[in-house]
Amino acid sequence: MAFFLIFALGVAAAIHYYLWFRLVRSTTRPGRARRIGTGLVVAALVVLIGALVLTRLDADLDWLAVIGYLWLAVMFYLLVTLAVLEIPAFVAKRVGSRDRREAPDAGALAAAAAPAEEATDDDRPGGRTPQGESRRLFVARTVAITAGVVAAGTVGFGVTQALGRPMLKRREIALAKLPRAMDGYRVALVSDIHLGPLAGRKHTERIVEMINSLDADIVTVVGDLVDGTVAQLGDDAAPLRLLRSKHGAYFVTGNHEYYSGYEEWIQEVTELGLKPLRNERVELPGGLDLAGVNDVTGAGFDDGPDFGKALDGRDPAKPVVLLAHQPIQVHDAAKHGVDLQLSGHTHGGQMAPFNLAVKLQQPVVSGYDTIDGTQIYVTNGAGFWGPPVRVGAPPDITLVELRAP
Fold first, then answer.
1. Which of 52, 289, 309, 361 is 20 to 30 A from 26 (CA-CA)?
2. Own/partner pairs for 124-127, CB < 8 Å, 24+ apart?
């Protein structure tokens, strides 16, 4: 953990140095403006560190979480936009320098004819644009303004997506061994609710209302319910008690449960009426097995996934649906003959183009696929982690309808 924190702080400091260089150093001359800009960048870094560290220790620092996580999103899109503009900016500066060398402007000729002591920066060859700024400074400021507008606009849109009502998706999935009598069996799937400093009781109430409107046969909560302890978030989770379905509501741990006191949360969700599937399996009415495994993060807490315990000894003629928080667990699921795995964890990437990085770690980022012969469906999740921002991956709740052949 200490190594991770040092690494994260190093990365954050490096990113802020880059932003300082592009947004402050390259766009200002030495003086007051540069000092103010430097101070703002340093303050932004301090606020970000505070949001990531202090809010986990003090639940009363919600205001710091809001500011810090919003800055994290703005920082991300500033970084992406500036990186994209690096090559065009370089070309613009080089072309301008070449043009000035090949054809001195009128200001340069006037400077040559004037007494040396009267020459100014504005009169030197290639020194200024018609607006009175050097071309290099003009390009740097144009890039900085463009990056700022793009980042602010993207984050503003992303906030409306993250804090808005989750989308309702519907997906039909055929199971070869599903009995005809269970054709159309309805599974309400929700993951990554992420109750925490920025998502509280009203967030839970809205999710419960949406799920109850689906008239589902079962409800499945596939991990990352919380970002905090029971003492901090128990009241926010309480509306889960009102979940309605024909054959019960089920829960498996996500990685964030292990960061938030998983043993207390397992007891809490049980008291709220959800059935935790801890490396175990239940037989649903009609001839369908439902299994659940702990998240892979649990291995570091002596509570890891055990596919053998959950799946061995079952009737292979019956279909089995597995709840597993992370899509990467599908490889083990396939070895045990799982027909369908339901997962979350990825948030669909949450903030594009971050989804491209998620693909390096998970076999499926969002939606349906088949991996090693096992079908898998991955929900974007109903909440958010970190910045209250979603771009290209709106929150969702999915109604999976199982179909018989």
1. 52
2. 125/100, 126/96, 126/97, 126/100, 126/101
